[in-house]
Design brief:
With 121 residues, this protein is an all-alpha fold. The chain contains five helices and no strands. Helix 2 packs antiparallel against helix 3 and helix 3 runs antiparallel to helix 4. The model has no long low-confidence stretch (mean pLDDT 78).
């Protein structure tokens, strides 16, 4: 039963994220990019807070936390470059594409953390 509840929560989180992306389809590419970066940054912060709390409470081991730490360093660098390019008004599509490509891994961390928080494995 718990795994079904966790799966539903994970699905809900993904659907909310996708709905946010879908709601801006009629907007200009600049607005879509800005909103996408903003949502991705907020998701990263929330996931990081959850991962940190799970580690501090010994829900996950250092070995389980290590991939998140490595990912977070890469994400921060890519995100900073993408936001900088966006704010400067440059068309650094590569910087933005790089950080947006990292969203799949971010959602995987979020789903795993949510499952761990619920007491699952």
């Amino acid at each position: 039963m718990r795994s079904l509840v966790r799966a539903r929560w994970a699905l809900l989180l993904i659907l909310v994220a996708l709905a946010g992306c879908a709601s801006v389809r009629r907007a200009s590419p600049e607005v879509v990019t800005g909103l996408s970066l903003d949502e991705l940054g907020a998701t990263f912060v929330a996931t990081g807070e959850l991962m940190n709390r799970l580690r501090q409470e010994n829900v996950i081991t250092e070995r389980e936390y290590e991939p998140w730490r490595d990912y977070a360093l890469r994400f921060k660098a890519a995100y900073g470059a993408a936001v900088g390019a966006y704010q400067a008004g440059t068309s650094d599509v590569e910087a933005v594409a790089k950080v947006l490509a990292m969203k799949t891994a971010l959602f995987r961390f979020l789903i795993t953390a949510t499952q761990k928080k619920g007491g699952g494995t």
